[in-house]
Predict the 3D structure of the following.
Amino acid sequence: MTRKSLGFVPLIWQCSFCNTQNPGPIKSCTSCGAPQPEDVEFLQVDEEKFNFIKDEALVRMAKAGPDIHCPFCGTRNSATDEFCKKCNGDLSWGGKERQAGQRIRTVTEAQSQEQPAAATPKKKKKGVTLIIIFILLAVIVGCAVLLFMSLKTDDVKATVSDVQWERSINIEAYTMIAESAWRDEIPFGADVTRCSSAHRYTSDTYVSGAVEVCGDPYVEDTGTGVGEVVQDCSYEVYDDYCEYTAMDWVVVETVMDSGYNHAAAWPAVDLLTDEREGERTEAYVINFRDGSDTYQFKTPNLQLFEQAQIGSRWILHINQLGAVQSLEPAN
Ligand SMILES: [Zn+2]
Ligand SMILES: [Zn+2]
């Protein structure tokens, strides 16, 4: 999100002794003269619309940074002051900067939140959070148990009872295809048929030509008694999304052969002039028997398959889920 400043608005603070509401930049109560406490909360006066400050000196002061409390007498001084207005103390000697950047409440918000009414929905939220944490924990424990069960193996001696193989070859043809893509991702030589503007991505930072989308403005404490109205904005980038046609190799058929023996062979391929062979796949299944128990092992490894002659004895490493993890001939 990009933080956008819209301008500065007046704030007030309430005297804790006489409850008088004083303007933010005034540093002692206009009614009883009590000094403004260090942890005083500034409040927003404008509720419906922002009454932006036009006084340039006040704006400059707000932009200068948070006020500094004198390390000797506690008096609030402007960020640009070098010596305390009251005691003339050196402010570079550990003067404390006022807190800044926190969101300012309106006078109405501050008054309504002081009444302890909004306690129940918070409690409900806590319950939901606890349930979510519990579910997450259960998922993590479940995954850990599964991982443990798949890693821990037992050894079993078994005999090859039967085998199976399957081999396939893709046949590709050079064909006209219709596709769609962002304009800068269209392959070279393609024929673009139609484009329209579409939302491609949203950026947190400013992008030239993008659509700016901003949230509701709110007021932040500048630490000077003046508030800054800010807005969080993001940028929606639009781009040309196009339909196009192009020539490409496309899988049009898969020829397959299989058998229940060790005579694995590639299927016969009959190609037309605009066709070629594509990807080849091979899969072998070895079935084992140990008394009444049966086990199955699938592999793309032809050498291992040919070694697994019917009736040969093997040591199988079986995990807790009943799957064969690995195997070796039993000699
Ligand atoms: Zn007062
Ligand atoms: Zn001082």
About this structure: The longest strand covers residues 226-259. Helices lie at 56-64, 107-113, 120-151, 302-307. The radius of gyration is 38 Å. Residues 15, 17-18, 20, 29, 31-32, 34 surround zinc ion (ligand 1) (CB under 6 Å).
